[in-house]
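Comment thread on ticket #2218

A.B. wrote:
> Attaching the input chain for the structure job we discussed in standup.
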Amino acid sequence: MPTYNKLVRDEIPRIIAADGKTYRSRILESEEYVQELRTKLGEESEEYFNASNDTDALEELADMLEIIRALAVGHGSSPEELEKIRVGKAEKRGGFKDKVFLIDVDEA
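C.D. wrote:
> Ran it. Output below, let me know if you need it in another format.
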């Protein structure tokens, strides 16, 4: 029996059971949940960096976005509030669509 010891998407236990397999799981406490989400974000980030094509990269970005939305809740907020923060920062400092790469700044 493979051992995973990792956070999985909500429907994974149902999918495992539908395949006629048994599993063991537990529900995480809030602090452990946030830590496991952070771990999962690192894993998905690594998978994104290792993606060899746009389709795979987008799949990993979608996974990361799902985790980020869950992290917002885990930090006592909501995905909607996170979006408001993102918009506010974009309005003040811009986004990344112009592809600006800063070389250096002359301080004199």
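A.B. wrote:
> Thanks. Noting for the ticket: The mean pLDDT is 97.
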